[in-house]
Amino acid sequence: MTHFCSLTARGYNGLTFIALRKDKLVSSSQQLRSRYSKLQQQQQQQQQQQQQQQKQQQQQQQQQQQQQQQQKQQQQQQQQQQQQQNKQQQQEDEQAQEKKRQQEKQQQQQHKQQQQQQQQQQQQQQQANFVINSISSLQAATARG
């Protein structure tokens, strides 16, 4: 009887020990699961952050490319404006040179015309003098008689 009682007592104590061990295992497994789920959440958050950073980097790269394209366009526009200004300057220079040439030609023509007019006046004066001289000599001859 005492042996049976001791066995039952031992058995009861063993079951209690097993139950306690089971509770500890359950609690430890729950802790592990919670830690695992926290780690998973952290990993997901890190992945999301990395994805956001990658998106931001891509956006920044796109903005840089757009800025580079805008700079290229501005440079091209400046080059075109410079070329147009150079062309305008060349045209103005050519026009100014052409005006100078025309003025020089006009001056030369005017000078030639003045010389021709002077020569014609001299010839007319000589002819008039010749006529006057010949008339006066004829008058003198007739007066002598």
What does this protein structure show overall?
The chain has one helix at residues 2-144. The chain has 145 residues and is an all-alpha fold. It is rod-shaped and about 185 Å long. Residues 1-9 have low confidence and may be disordered.
- Tally of alpha and pi helices: 1
| Total strand segments | 0
Average pLDDT, all residues? 87
Binned strand content: under 5%
How would you classify the helix and strand content by structural class?
mainly alpha
Structural features:
0% strand, single chain, 1 helix, disordered N terminus, mainly alpha, 145 residues, rod-shaped
Summarize the structure.
Residues 87-114 are annotated as: Disordered. The chain is mainly α and 145 residues long.
Describe the secondary-structure layout.
Layout: H1 2-144
